[in-house]
Amino acid sequence: MDDFVLAQANPRGTRPKVAFLGTASGESENYVLRFHRAFARRDCAAVDVSLFRRTAEDLRSLLLAQDVVYVGGGNTANMLAVWRVHGVDRILSEAHARGTVLAGVSAGAMCWFEGGVTDSFGDLAVFEDGLALLPGGFCPHYDEPGRRELFHTWATRPDARPRSGYAADNGAAVVLPSAGAAPFVVSTTPNAGGYRVTVDDAGRVVEERLQARLLP
User: Fold this and answer.
1) 1-104: which CATH architecture?
2) Fewest CB within 10 angstroms: 31, 114, 150, 216, which?
């Protein structure tokens, strides 16, 4: 999956630059170390960006210089609160407009949308304060108990407009290319899927399994 993410950067024949934001895990030292171990084996220039032990004065220049911004998993709500204090939300919006590859795991996948299903508050809950760089919602860990049902409930909630969005099982990633290309899924296990979730005119949830490509 990491190789696939780097391949999307296509930085005109140069070594891609990738930055890791581990904010959601509280910048777990183990998580940051795992990131560096993984990307040290690949032909790229990798850096982790700390907000809890901030040393970079110019976050905007640092993040906009990257070809890939990779966001780790953890507590989505806490991560977004910290990002907003440091202005990272605005920087990532600018990076998105410039075509930077934005990728992530769990919280790092949901944050780009308006909201989704999270366990940031303990029990599973709907979260509606994402970056909204992408419309609708996202549900990671879709094959875990309770997540699919809560995502469907959110999509058809009577006090709000019908929602749409995407979901991914563990081991799968939904890819939303730029320039209007059709979304698709890449997976690391044969049965892991990704889905487009919409609501029809009768208020019923429609779940479409997207075309998937099994990574080597």
Assistant:
1) 3-Layer(aba) Sandwich (3.40)
2) 216
